[in-house]
Design goal:
By secondary structure, the chain is of the alpha/beta class. The protein has a domain at 61-198: Glutaredoxin (3-Layer(aba) Sandwich). The protein contains eight helices and six strands. α5 packs across α8 (188-195). The longest helix has 17 residues, at 5-21. It starts with a helix and ends in a 5-residue tail after the last helix.
């Protein structure tokens, strides 16, 4: 059968339309657009503002190693500010009470008046757990652990009378000569009564 020019043009037009509708570039464009962030709803498990703040405060914070030989450098500084060193064990409930009270006190008086330094006497097997606690509680102060053996010589570097019992706190102000060491369980109000006069 011989095709007339009219039928021939109609057949070409149909083929052209069919090719256009199945163009892979258009499909690719549709897939790309549907994958754009603005076309997706936010996940229902998005962090709360409080959680975001905690993460922001603790960003990059983790427990830091320090050797016995570096310990002296921890007590050297030139600022006229009270430094409070809290030595703790993460499994001791009294240590948690002391550390929480210190964090609350620092929040009340500000960083320019009081500087906290936490020191864990835990074994290295507990470091992961301590790092989690630092981030979960939004702890922004430095937290250290000994990278070598903690022994009698190590305790003597902090205070000659210390035998390693925790909680223990060392209050130090290089400018006015304050050097006080306590190895005892503190109630929060008792701890505040000891520190407040030193920062006024």
């Amino acid at each position: 059968m011989k095709l007339t020019p009219f039928y021939f043009l109609a057949l070409i037009s149909l083929l052209f339309l069919q090719c256009k509708n199945s163009n892979p570039k258009d499909t690719k464009k549709d897939s790309f657009e549907s994958a754009m962030p603005h076309s997706k709803s936010l996940p229902s498990s998005e962090l709360s503002m409080e959680d975001k703040q905690k993460l922001a405060n603790a960003q990059g914070k983790s427990i830091l190693p320090i050797s016995k030989n570096q310990l002296d450098s921890l007590f050297l500084y030139s600022e006229d500010i009270l430094h409070v060193y809290s030595f703790f064990n993460s499994n001791n409930p009294s240590c948690k009470i002391v550390n929480d009270a210190l964090l609350n006190l620092q929040q009340e008086v500000g960083d320019t008046t009081l500087r906290l330094i936490f020191f864990s006497l835990d074994g290295q097997e507990n470091l992961k757990e301590i790092n989690s606690a630092i981030r979960e509680n939004g702890v922004t102060t430095d937290v250290f652990y000994s990278s070598d053996l903690i022994d009698e010589d190590w305790y003597n570097k902090v205070n000659p009378k210390w035998e390693g019992e925790v909680p223990a706190i060392f209050l130090l102000n290089q400018s006015d000569g304050t050097q006080l060491f306590y190895q005892k369980n503190f109630a929060p109000e008792e701890l505040s009564a000891v520190i407040q006069p030193l920062i006024m």
